[in-house]
Amino acid sequence: xxxxxxxxxxxxxxxxxxxxxxxxxxxxxxxxxxxxxxxxxxxxxxxxxxxxxxxxxxxxxxxxxxxxxxxxxxxxxxxxxxxxxxxxxxxxxxxxxxxxxxxxxxxxxxxxxxxxxxxxxxxxxxxxxxxxxxxxxxxxxxxxxxxxxxxxxxxxxxxxxxxxxxxxxxxxxxxxxxxxxxxxxxxxxxxxxxxxxxxxxxxxxxxxxxxxxxxxxxxxxxxxxxxxxxxxxxxxxxxxxxxxxxxxxxxxxxxxxxxxxxxxxxxxxxxxxxxxxxxxxxxxxxxxxxxxxxxxxxxxxxxxxxxxxxxxxxxxxxxxxxxxxxxxxxxxxxxxxxxxxxxxxxxxxxxxxxxxxxxxxxxxxxxxxxxxxxxxxxxxxxxxxxxxxxxxxxxxxxxxxxxxxxxxxxxxx
Amino acid sequence: xxxxxxxxxxxxxxxxxxxxxxxxxxxxxxxxxxxxxxxxxxxxxxxxxxxxxxxxxxxxxxxxxxxxxxxxxxxxxxxxxxxxxxxxxxxxxxxxxxxxxxxxxxxxxxxxxxxxxxxxxxxxxxxxxxxxxxxxxxxxxxxxxxxxxxxxxxxxxxxxxxxxxxxxxxxxxxxxxxxxxxxxxxxxxxxxxxxxxxxxxxxxxxxxxxxxxxxxxxxxxxxxxxxxxxx
Lengths: 413, 231
Fold this sequence. Notes:
- The complex is a heterodimer.
- By secondary structure, chain A is of the alpha+beta class.
- Chain A has helices at 8-19, 21-56, 101-109, 143-150, 163-166, 175-181, 212-217, 223-229, 250-261, 268-271, 273-310, 313-321, 326-360, 377-403, 407-411; strands at 63-66, 114-129, 132-141, 156-159, 170-174, 188-193, 198-207, 218-222, 239-244, 264-267, 363-365, 369-370.
- Chain A has 15 helices and 12 strands.
- Chain A has a 6-stranded mixed β-barrel with strand order 2-3-8-5-7-6, surrounded by 4 helices. Chain A has a two-stranded antiparallel sheet with strand order 11-12.
- In chain A, a hairpin with a 3-residue loop joins strand 11 (363-365) and strand 12 (369-370).
- In chain A, 37% of the residues are buried.
- Chain B has a domain at 37-47 and 77-225: P-loop containing nucleotide triphosphate hydrolases (Rossmann fold).
- Chain B is built from 7 helices and 10 strands.
- In chain B, the strands form 2 sheets. A 6-stranded mixed beta sheet of chain B has the order 6-7-8-3-9-10. A 4-stranded antiparallel beta sheet of chain B has the order 2-1-4-5, with helices on one face.
- At the A-B interface, helix 1, helix 12, helix 13 and helix 15 of A face helix 2 and helix 3 of B.
């Protein structure tokens, strides 16, 4: 036969769809709602997760490289084991600077998984206001690089982070410090470093993270100024902050960096174990909520499409009686389900997009700002794949069942 | 020597719901090519059940069924569907058309499924069958808009479309008036005599049965007479 066979299965499926418009619409609407809720809820969960992580990484790098304190070791290897020796290990009072930081930074930057590297120097300080003194820490940074790494702009509430690099004696104060010292942008503030250096600095801005301990103690200053406060030279760096491309891999990657640099490399998970436990719990909750939505939406879609097939069960028997085989029957009802699914999915994606977009522009306030929800492509892909999967099964399972029985057993019911 | 087209050997069937009941008991008979066979019997004697087994739409039975010299008793569903498509035309007691399709489409669908002829030839053929049954003017109406008798005639046209070896009818004239019954009867007669097709019809209509080539009488699931003679 040279002529292609007439696509009668497709015609039957198409006829069912157009001649039962109401049922088609209801079924498609069921798919639409299922898909929309699935995508929307997952976008919300992803947004929540992302905003929590972002808030966290506002002040903490993925990996921090520093020189760990060393404990003195007795030089007793030559002494015979029989002679008792009194030893008293102490922290070696060597300075904890990183030697030749530029070279180390360059080495780190050359690693393929490393996204960003910037040095940091933390100084213990007192903020002075008349007779009050507040202890805290001033973090010496390279303003441009630190801004890129921690997205500092997003939590500066007064002034501008870029002003820091134009003012060598500028200081970006935590909101808690600023209010206690009663200063605002443009005012001067006197600070005293741990080695007794007192300097007058100009407040160029105020930041507010959602961590009150940070806000009440921390200030950012130029790294060069921090070196002055400690009476050190320009190569005195205690910490190198490293961000990698996938922060979830920090733990494994820190080991590599420690070997590479010969310094201590501490990943964010190790440095914040309490936070990690909370994160893990959050991940579990999110996963379970996501699975629940999947089940509920999936069941809804399955039911309504199953109904469209079961309504045609008598037709299946007739089709079988006049010579349609199991494959034909399955093809007819799977195509019907998939076409309804396609209609539903298109509207579901549109509906979800509208909901995400409208919630995205809702201003919550505080340091959250706009509601944290994002268009995440993987959620949409998952939603579409899930929709097609469920609609396929909803057409396939009942059709397959009906295809395998005697036509008469359907007529007899 | 007459050629056997369909043969049963000791077909027995039980119903298990609501209680076990032997609906067919040791049914054995031959049907010859070109024969117009009718099956009569009281309501509940198992004649419709037998016809469903002969049409391969019911596979739950014991015994052997031969169609066109092939033992189809233990064939798989898909293979049976093919044989129904090619070799058997079935007319149900209650029409059973596809409600969403026009009469013409209903008649065409088995031929479109078979796919041996091009679409336009099938359409032409379907019109001919409908004309034969006096329904050409109803061809494009949705099948659900027709009367019961008209629907039954569409179902007969559908059974004829693939020129099957055997046409089976469960009360094929049950919903028809005498004029149409007479018409169907002469169509069946012509099919058997001119084209060598075989008809097996279950009927309550004694006049219809009387005019057929042979009548089998059933009672309580058994054949009590292989060639019933009307007085």
